[in-house]
Each structure stands twice: as structure tokens, then as C-alpha cells.
Amino acid sequence: MRSRAHSRPPMSLAERVRAVFAADGLLSHAADHFTPREAQTDMALAVAQTVEAGGVLVVEAGTGVGKTFSYLVPALLSGERVLVSTATKTLQDQLFGRDLPRLVQALGISVRTALLKGRSSYLCLHRMQTARQNDAAIDRAAGRALGKIEQWAQATRTGDLAELPGLDERSPLIPLVTSTRENCLGAQCPQFRACHVNLARRDALAADLVVVNHHLFFADLAVRESGMAELLPTVRVAIFDEAHQLNETGVQFLGRQLGTGQLLDFARDILATGMQAARGLVDWPTAANGLERAAQDLRMAVGRQAPGARMRWSDAVPDGADPSAWEVGLATIQQALDVALAGLDMVSELAPDFGRLHERGTALSARLQMFAQPSRIGQVRWVDVGAQLRLVESPLDIADTMRTRLLALPADGTAADPAPPGAEPEGREGEGADGGRPRAWIFTSATLGDDPALRWFTEPCGLDGSAQVLRVGSPFDYERQAALYVPDWLPRPADPGHAVALARLCGDAAARLGGRTLVLTTTLRALRTIGEALSQRFGASRELEILVQGEWPKRRLMERFREGGGDGRPGCVLVASASFWEGVDVPGDALQLVVLDKLPFPPPNDPLVEARAQRLEQEGRSPFKDYFVPEAAVALQQGAGRLIRRETDRGVLVVGDTRLTTMSYGKRLLRALPPMRRLSSDAEFHEALDALTTPSTTDPYWP
């Protein structure tokens, strides 16, 4: 009788993933102080199952779960072509430069990875040369910075400006040495073969796993220019980290925009190129100056507005703008563009730059004419006001785009033309026409909503009803690691004295802690008031160093804040707003007190917020319950999430808004926060702060 050979069937992806996350698994060699976490393993198994079967998975993974490894491990082990998109270029660099290499080494696999960013991240060799030829327009400091870039350009392989130490991300030199879709010469560029953007795209197309960011992803959906149009159809697994930013990022790019800054850049490039390649053939200074004046006149037409204001624009003219001045401003810009285009027509054959400038001017003219017409149905229009103006028309969310252009993308490795708006996708979502395995779409973040279905995220992203939803909680012991205090004596947020009173509380608390304090505000006005009050209080004594957003670049602020006090340096208080509510990671004793000035409700007079609220009303729903409160809950979670970043962290969260404890909706917002122990008086608050400065803070049973 013949003996039957017994062979073990190959392990499934889920089984291999489970083995990696075991106590003695491969991951224990990749992560410092690794310990198995049930939540991390649960998420990884859910990702593995979705990768194998296809479909849509939405995962809310609380702070500390380790979601990055939870999606990277199954992605890398699957052998599939993978796209990972995250929120910022900083997170991209961290993922690509730190997490991926460690995992690839620990898993012992051979995989080709690539990093792909937008044009503005890469040095343009042609524009760098052009900037040097036009160095009369560059001041001495910018000239020295250009010299450093030129020296670095000889050694860099990637051309990624993030590699260049000391380059301020706000430097006015960056637009002069990087390209845009409008001013890129394409195949006609003399540096085309050495182009860093093209090399990055070629690397991405040849890679097994590509790391991009949300801005790049949606910019390509809008203009099909970044290389994603070729890349995405070849990818079977798409993972979006920090997915809570997807909707707002997508809305920025899926709409249409025209900025006076674009017009000024166009005028500057006309002058520089014209004077270099066709001096005397056209009156370039007159053409450029006319466009600059027209752009400045349009800015003057809106009068004095608060920086960062959004002006409603439901009729022919934005609310608050002088109708006559606005209409004349648009007409004057059109005339100036016509003059510039006529000049470019005369010299279009002399250099490739002139042809691209003509295309760019024609596109600006078409966009200007669009904004002179009524807004499209289903869109909202407004004007962003700053040093420049930005005219914006956008959809209310990305739901239609997600359903018709992403989830409907064939899974057979072929590109498909985008479905027209409102069209139903053929077949099942994400499945190819040949019936092959559907694509896997994974969306994850620490905060995706305050209800079990995560509707705050799934509805505007077009995923309601089609996604598997998983929520895995944080492994942190918040009851022992953190405390929450809502001072009942503070004035209401609408009271003019609120910010001053909160600044006094912050100063007293920071003095007890020796700094270690992050103050997050919901408005620039509160930022200025609190920052000035703390600077006046501690400026002379230098007892504490007060760091205020806007005074230094964000990177430098965070570096100084993480250094903290000691070695003769004072402790730090950082007062910030906007982007500092999320993505700020300061583990350890450098941050032990987070103060949120008030509940972060969306501004009700924002045109996009108004339009979303009106749509809910038309659907018979409550804008406050279904939009304002969920938005505040997610933002509150993000702000509170800055406090506890590791299992050993200890700290106190202060919410300077009594509505959290006195209004009925406050209970819902409190449930959205981690389960911290509650402090009920100033005495308990001070006791908790004092305990943070003693050696007992190393005891896991603090206080």
C-alpha cells in the first residue's frame, strides 16, 4: 500500500500576519520594546482579510495602537502592488525613511519601495539655472541660499528639497527653483532627462509599494498630471492613513481656483523669460506691471478683511466687495492677460518657455471667465482673503468622486476613463470587468467619528453602506495616565475676557510645571491674545520661553519645544492654532499640559460650512446634531490626542469651555474624549500639576 505524503497547506495571509505579531514573531525585532497588543493584531488581521478578498475597510485605531505596522505588515506580505497615502510630506518621509526599511528588514522580504511627492517638493534644474541668470531680482540673502541649493544639486540623487538642511519651507526662493504644472516645459525642457520629478515618477511606476500624500493624490484626480493616472490603475491595494483629512483635502483640489498670487507669479515669469530670451521684441515690463496692478486692484476691491477670512459669493459679486470695483477688477485682469498673451504670440517660436507661458496665460484667462459666470449647481463659491485673494468654487464633499472615479476603478490593471458625475459604476465596486479580485481600499485614522458607524467620515467620502467598519481602542490607561479639568470659573468663550483669563490660567500652570505646556486655540485672535499675554508675563524674567505659531517655522518651533528646559535653558510654552491640533508628537516630559481654549465647532459663517448645513436642512436633518457636533467631537479628539503619546506619558488636559459640562451636547463631546479621570477644582488641578514634577510620575499608578 502506497503511503500518502502529508504536506501542510500554505499559510493564508491572515495566518502569516498573526505569526508576525506574536510575542516571539518577526515584529519583535523591528519595533523597540515590542509587546503584543490585541488591538494592533485585530486591525492587522482585518487589513489582511480585506487585502485577500478586496472591498472597503474603515478602521479607527486609537492613539498608541500602532496602526502603521498594522497596515504595512499585511501590505508587504501580500505580494500585491500597494499605494500608501498619508496626510503630510513629513509623515511621508517618516513612513518611507524609518518605518518601511525597519519592517522590510525584519520581515526578510525583497520589495521595491518608492516615495512620490508633488512638483513643489523637487528641485527643478532648469528653473534653478533661470533663477541664477536673473539674480538681479534676488536679494543678497536669497542669493546665498541659491548658492547652497546649487551646491547641493550636484550631489543629490532625488532632488527632494526636504533633504536640504536649513531650508525654510516658507522661503520665497522655493517657487523660483521648483516647477508647477503650468510652467513645466515637459519634453521640451533642456533638463528633461535629468528631471527629478520624472525620475521620481519612473521609480514609482517600477515599485511594489509607493508612498504618496493626500494632496498629490487629489491633485491628480483634478488635473491628471502628477503620474498617479498611470500608477493607480496598476495598484490593487490602496491604503489611506490619517484618513480623517481626506474629505477636506479632496474638496480643495476637486474644485476650481484662481489666485491673485498665480497672476503675480505669471507676471514675474513673463518679465524674467522675456528679458532673457526676447529683450526688446516686446515691452515686457509694461505687460508684467499691468498684470501686477490689475491683481492688486482686485485685492483692493474687497476692502479690509480679517486675514484668513472667507467671503460668501452666492451672487455675481462676493458679499462685502464693492460691486463696481470688483467687476472693473475682473475686466482689467482680462485686459492685462490679453496684452501678455499677444506679446507671447509674437515670440512663441523663440523658446519653449514662451509656448508654456502662453498655455499658462490661456488657462488663467479661461478660469477668470469661469468665475465671471454664475456658480455651477451643487458647488459652493467663496473668496479666501489674505495678502492675496483666492477665488474658489468647490463641491461640498468628495462622495461623488470617490464612488464614480475611485471605487469604480477596474481591478484588471487597466486605466478607465472617469465616469461622468452621477453615473453608476458598472459591476461591483472596485471589481474589474473580467470578474477578477476586486481592489482593496483601506482607510484608517485615530479619529473618524463619534458614532459606531463612523458616519462623520463615511458619508462625505461616499463609503456609507459599502464599507466594513472596525474600531479598535487605545492601549493607554487614560484613567491612570491623564486627567481632565474644565474650570467652571472661566468666562464663556463669547466673553471678551475669556482669552485673558485663560492666559492667566496657562501662565500659572506652566510656572508650576516649568513649561511643558501646549496651548491650542481655535482662532487667530485668541492665539494673539494668549501669546501676547504670556510673552508679557515671562518675557522679562526669562523664567519660561514663550513660543508662538508664526514667529518661527513650524519645524523649528517643534524642535525647540521638544528640547524643553534644563542645561541653563528655560522651559517652553507653545501657543498654536490650526495645524498644531493634529500631527504633533511630543512624547515624554516635554509635554505634560495641553490646554484647548474652547470647543472646536466649525465657524458657522464659513461659506462651505453654511452650504453643508443648508444641505442637511433640505434633507430634513439637524445641522447641529449631524454636522457641527460631530465636527467638534473629531477636532476635540485630535487636540486631546497631543497629550498622551506613549504608555509612560502622564499629563493633564484643560478644556477652557464650560459648555462641555453645562450643555446637553457636552455629554456627547465628553464621550468622544479618552476616559480620563476628572478634576473638579483648582485645588485638584494644582495637586495634579505638582505631582507631575515629582519622581512619582515614573510610577504607573500616578498620582
Describe this structure in words.
- The protein is an alpha/beta fold.
- Helices cover 44% and strands 13% of the residues.
- It is built from 26 helices and 18 strands.
- Helix 5 (125-133) packs antiparallel against helix 6 (140-153) and helix 19 crosses helix 20 (524-538).
Decide which structural class fits the backbone. alpha/beta
Q: What is the number of strand segments?
A: 18
Biggest β-sheet: strands ordered side by side in the sheet: 3-4-2-5-10-1-11
- What's the helical proportion of residues? 40-55%
Radius of gyration (CA) equals: 27 Å
Characteristics:
disordered N terminus, 703 residues, seven-stranded parallel β-sheet, 13% strand, alpha/beta
Strand-helix topology:
Elements: H1 13-20, H2 38-53, E1 55-61, H3 67-78, E2 82-86, H4 89-107, E3 113-115, H5 125-133, H6 140-153, H7 174-177, H8 196-206, E4 209-213, H9 214-223, H10 228-231, E5 237-240, H11 246-254, E6 256-259, H12 260-277, H13 284-301, E7 310-312, H14 323-347, H15 352-371, E8 379-385, E9 389-395, H16 399-406, E10 440-445, H17 455-458, E11 468-472, H18 478-481, E12 482-485, H19 498-513, E13 517-521, H20 524-538, E14 544-548, H21 554-563, E15 571-577, E16 593-596, H22 607-618, H23 623-640, E17 651-655, H24 659-662, H25 665-672, E18 677-679, H26 682-692
Helix pairs in contact: 1-2, 1-3, 2-3, 3-4, 5-6, 9-11, 12-13, 12-15, 13-14, 14-15, 19-20, 22-23, 23-25
